[in-house]
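Regression report. Comparing outputs from two consecutive submissions.

Submission 1:
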Amino acid sequence: LTGSRDRDMLHLHHSWTPNIDRLAEDGVKLTQHISAASLCTPSRAAFLTGRYPVRSGMVSSIGYRVLQWTGASGGLPTNETTFAKILKEKGYATGLVGKWHLGLNCESASDHCHHPLHHGFDHFYGMPFSLMGDCAHWELSEKRVNLEQKLNFLFQVLALVALTLVAGKLTHLIPVSWTPVIWSALWAVLLLSGSYFVGALIVHADCLLMRNHTITEQPMRFQKTTPLILQEVASFLKRNKHGPFLLFVSFLHVHIPLITMENFLGKSLHGLYGDNVEEMDWMVGQILDTLDMEGLTNSTLIYFTSDHGGSLENQLGRTQYGGWNGIYKGGKGMGGWEGGIRVPGIFRWPGVLPAGQVIGEPTSLMDVFPTVVQLAGGEVPQDRVICTVKNLLALVLNSQHSDHGSVHFVSWEGTTWKVHFVTPVFQPEGAGACYGRKVCPCFGEKVLHHDPPLLFDLSRDPSETHVLTSASEPVFYQVMERVQRAVREHQRTLSPVPLQLDRLGNIWRPWLQPCCGPFPLCWCLREDGPQ
């Protein structure tokens, strides 16, 4: 046993992600694979529907670019069609295990209008929201620290008001009854209590596990979560191995607070982030082993990707907790910079797809929609704009390059051109991210509008360091015209839809809060799971 562990350790140090590497070696790598957004909620919406998030309303006009609460009313609209819904209609068993983060309820805590089961999945086990630093009371906080500061400020204001009224009353300088004194003091005590308990309230409100419509853990027991996820994946595969199935495994890794099992802590040379990545890679290996044991390997198409790039602002001191994006500029939440939207793309299907092939032309997470729909014998919806018709399997099998355009890039005559109309202002000046903020803004004073747009040749300059101009690039105007034409066509086909991430749909509403007891006593453990 000792020798076996030593070999595993040497193997992991030699190859940080041996199981993901094995997927890539046995399958096809997409080296210019692009997400539709640089943040999770809109990117996931686009992935599932094949439509840019602006078409489904999974955007905001005020800066809320992801869903902020489980108990908010925003989410993937019920009239959207996911590839899971189409595959279910074609007789596939459909399951989602892991993170959802596309909304839950609309009008009551039990209507589940945005729930995965209302979007084509037969089975769901996981987080209806997302893992956050606040789930573990981290210093890297999404909401808790800001809310504590606001509540403390209001407490101080009301406490000062109460003390002033008391002093004025006792000295007869302020003719006032005791009623406003008592009320201001009571409110001050409530605000102080709120600032003290808000962290625990967030943990209970957002950090929970559900099986279908039933809450199983509130709050989650993090050291049990990874075994529970793997157990659920194995159970789904065993139940459905004799028929067609679609299983979407949406890892909670590698997102702060980087919850990692004890046997992976300290193993990586890259700190806690590396530990968490290695644990995720081990999970990939466990899933591949299950497919082998159930005789499903040769009949199963596997797709591996990420919804966006690494989060550069997630750092404390010199320790990076949000990952890194190599040669690519920018990261999570930074508009269209490659570091935020260029993600891994791997397909594996033994005996069908050629092992070791590399596809370098631009592809999108949205391309998965027509790919799996056509593979299952379904039809892409004709009653709405689908933002891609590219079948990735046909691309891989035919190995043919295609000239095409999008709203921010053009692949033309073997060259991939990229334009930026708006970019965030990095802080401090000269930095490669918006340090001091949770994420870069996408509008207002902290962004730059470019006229003419910034142009890059990604084929020669994937790091986006050399801005091309009409003086330095002979086909500058032709490229700009093709991109502008794509933008005009995109805008022409947009229809007004409710914005799901605006303030009205993105504030916490107590009556929408999922709770496994009488609100606000939201605590339960209904499934003990693996020991």
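Submission 2:
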Amino acid sequence: MLGICRGRRKFLAASLTLLCIPAITWIYLFAGSFEDGKPVSLSPLESQPHSPRYTASSQRERESLEVRMREVEEENRALRRQLSLAQGRAPGHRRGNHSRTYAMEEGTGDSENLRAGIVAGNSSECGQQPVVEKCETIHVAIVCAGYNASRDVVTLVKSVLFHRRNPLHFHLIADTIAEQILATLFRTWMVPAVRVDFYNADELKSEVSWIPNKHYSGIYGLMKLVLTKTLPANLERVIVLDTDITFATDIAELWAVFHKFKGQQVLGLVENQSDWYLGNLWKNHRPWPALGRGYNTGVILLLLDKLRKMKWEQMWRLTAERELMGMLSTSLADQDIFNAVIKQNPFLVYQLPCFWNVQLSDHTRSEQCYRDVSDLKVIHWNSPKKLRVKNKHVEFFRNLYLTFLEYDGNLLRRELFGCPSETDVNSENLQKQLSELDEDDLCYEFRRERFTVHRTHLYFLHYEYEPTSDNTDVTLVAQLSMDRLQMLEAICKHWEGPISLALYLSDAEAQQFLRYAQGSDVLMNRHNVGYHIVYKEGQFYPVNLLRNVAMKHISTPYMFLSDIDFLPMYGLYEYLRYHVWTKGHAPTNFAKWRTATTPYRVEWEADFEPYVVVRRGCPEYDRRFVGFGWNKVAHIMELDAQEYEFIVLPNAYMIHMPHAPSFDITKFRSNKQYRICLKTLKEEFQQDMSRRYGFAALKYLTAENNS
């Protein structure tokens, strides 16, 4: 043990010496320039300050020095990374192998030196650095409400997960819509070492509803003011983020800045990068009071424990009441009130370097706070124009954002090695089920697909539905992939009622779908269509999982189980609403149907797979059937076993829209093993039916043998 410790000390000493090279170099240059308080000649050329030779030579020397300094700084950053990794592997000085040191960026004490923050951030510090433990949990709070914000926050989360090396605990202040969407997303995402808690934003409305707000964020834009009351009392500190933030670095670096707070500093903020609070943007512009340019609240470090002791609630309320007597309303939501409080109490703020919140808003001056876009750490799209905002580096920022927007979220399910994860019952059950499968089974991949958890984003677009008073409404349920996207508009034109669609897409395809939908007048004029994205994973098309997702998220008492390539006749929606029956609709006697004028009953037959209308709450589709074959047949068999009656409706029909063969049907036709596995799954399903329904299920075996 003694030998290991000695070796480690030698490594650290050598590394720290190298880390100090930039500082020592500058000290040498500074010291070498003066003697007894007077400048000292560094070169004989300096005695000829006006000679061309002097000018050219000194220029080359300066350029050479600048190049060397950049090289040293790059070496410094690389060594810092190596040191950090070495500390992660070697025994730590406080908690064994659970410590890691992150380089700290110096905050600036005044706005005049704000632009120097980048240089200070990239320079080396030889003193003791604040520590973020390797397995220390970083807490992040986000206010999120509605369908669009729920979609936007995913890109923020991806950028954080991409860079992170620590466990994360997200505290989401969400309305009912956002909670439903994001709870499902995180549950199906199954990212290790990530915990998510929700806080009901609707219950907080009374806390801030008395404040008139002109900002487009509405009442939810004021809820960061009440985080000291909302978040758990034992939570001491939290990073608060807007949903339109993109990270370009590890969030642990920002978390480490808490160690820089001194005295009564309880708020970490970046200076506002526009002239808004200076009041000179237009004639008679009258902003809320602020200290200088004020501060932007898109990124906030909150010391919750100290804020509570300072009676933050009373502080901001009294300030808001006083200012509203003259201002009448806020223009920038919580940001106006935070700045008014800071104006009266400037000691509360620790000013962060501007690269922690580069604001791409209208009238922005963010270009003046950095020298190179590669130095930036957090991008804030705080303009209503979002990606269309004007900035000379906007293409770089846009590409960074689009990278995470279309990044495969499944790749972020990586373990944090060395950090124990909380016990997840769902994950444990999944691992147990997978371990029971035989990997040597030729149908292993088919069986495994049944247990695959697909990341799911419900209500990808805005959704509205008003229930009918007669309790007879019907939702069309279908599923599709990218190659059937062109059929959506025709379906929406033929079916004016509510629709629930499950779309099997990659992250990049989901964004293509979004652009397609937003460019379609037909789709944008329909708010009663629920689009649920099930993200691609594995080699099979999980057709029955998609159907189950779409079925589960309907709001009507009845559902019409269809496929995307079948076009309803005009008027079918209204026709089905007025033909109410107790159970369902099954295989059709077409000869009888052509002349029928009233509904008639039929019996189940082998291999029929009609499109049916059933009550909500009917049995789900069996997930063992993926790709092509028996996915609908098995469901109809299950309905029959549960004694559903099958009634055929006259004057109701659908038209099949021609399309190219799917990838799965091509595999079925060309791959013998595919057909063998499908046959095996059919037999196992029938055996399961016999176990569940006993003697009544014998007819399915008999019918299969006779077919």
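Expected: both submissions complete independently.
Actual: both completed, but the second showed a warning that disappeared on reload.
Relevant detail on submission 2: The mean pLDDT is 78.
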